[in-house]
Structure to design on (208 residues):
C-alpha cells in the first residue's frame, strides 16, 4: 500500500513539517510505503495516480489556504490526477476549529467533491506538543480506508469469467484494475462485476 503526503508551507521545521513527519512515521509503522512532496502549483501531478491514499495539508495564511496547494487544485492538474483517489485533508491554523471548518476547509473541498474523503482535521499551530492528536488522525484515515475497501468488496461480486480475465493482466496492475472496477460498480450500483460491465467501464474511462 502506498501513501502520499502532499503539503505546502512557507516555513521549514514549522508546524506543518511536524505534522507530516508524524503522519509519515505513523503510516509507515502501519505497513505503508510513504512519500512526501511539497506542492508547486505548476507541477505535473501525474505521479499521484500510483498512490492508494493521498493526504493533502497546508497552513492558512491571511485567510487563504497556503497558495501552492490551493493553486495546484484550482489551476494545476492535481484535481484531475486525484480522480477516484481516497484522500484525507488537514489544515494547520490559528483559528478555532469551527471557524476553520467553515472558512478554510471548503477552499480545498470545493475542488474535491468527487473524492472519497477518509478524514479531515484542523490542527492548532502548537501541535508539536500533541503528537497523539496527529496519530489519532492517522488511525481515523486507516480505519475509513479499510472500511471503504471492505464494503466495496462485499457490495459487488466478481463473476468467474471476469475473475479469469483479471488473471490475464500483469500482476502489478491487477490491484489497480480491481480497485477501479469495484469503484465503478459501486458508483453505478452494480451487484456483479461482469465482463460487460468491465467493457462499459473501460469505454467510459476513455480506454484507460
Ligand atoms: C503571516 C501569517 C498569517 C496567518 N494567517 C492566519 C489566518 O488568516 N487564519 C488562521 O487561522 N491562522 C493564520 N495564521 C496561523 C498559521 O496558519 C499557523 O501558525 C500555522 O501553524 C503555520 O504553519 P507553519 O508553521 O507550517 O508555517 C497565520 C500565520 C502567519 C505566520
Amino acid at each position: 500500500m502506498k501513501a502520499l503526503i502532499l503539503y505546502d508551507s512557507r516555513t521549514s521545521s514549522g508546524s506543518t513539517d511536524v505534522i507530516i513527519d508524524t503522519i509519515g512515521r505513523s503510516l509507515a509503522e502501519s505497513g505503508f510505503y510513504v512519500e512526501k512532496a511539497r506542492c508547486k502549483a505548476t507541477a505535473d501531478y501525474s505521479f499521484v495516480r500510483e498512490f492508494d491514499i493521498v493526504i493533502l495539508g497546508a497552513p492558512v495564511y491571511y485567510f487563504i489556504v497556503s497558495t501552492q496547494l490551493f493553486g495546484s487544485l484550482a489551476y494545476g492538474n492535481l484535481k484531475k490526477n486525484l480522480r477516484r483517489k481516497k484522500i484525507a485533508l488537514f489544515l494547520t491554523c490559528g483559528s478555532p476549529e469551527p471557524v476553520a471548518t467553515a472558512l478554510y476547509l471548503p477552499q480545498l473541498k470545493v475542488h474535491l467533491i468527487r473524492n472519497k474523503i477518509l478524514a479531515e482535521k484542523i490542527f492548532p499551530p502548537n501541535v508539536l506538543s500533541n503528537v497523539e492528536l496527529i496519530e489519532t488522525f492517522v488511525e481515523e484515515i486507516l480505519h475509513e480506508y479499510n472500511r471503504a475497501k471492505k464494503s466495496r468488496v462485499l457490495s459487488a461480486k466478481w463473476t468467474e469469467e471476469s475473475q479469469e480475465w483479471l488473471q490475464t493482466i500483469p500482476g502489478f496492475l491487477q490491484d489497480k484494475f480491481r480497485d477501479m472496477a469495484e469503484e465503478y460498480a459501486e458508483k453505478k450500483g452494480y451487484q456483479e462485476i461482469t465482463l460487460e460491465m468491465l467493457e462499459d467501464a473501460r469505454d467510459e474511462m476513455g480506454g484507460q
About this structure: The mean pLDDT is 91.
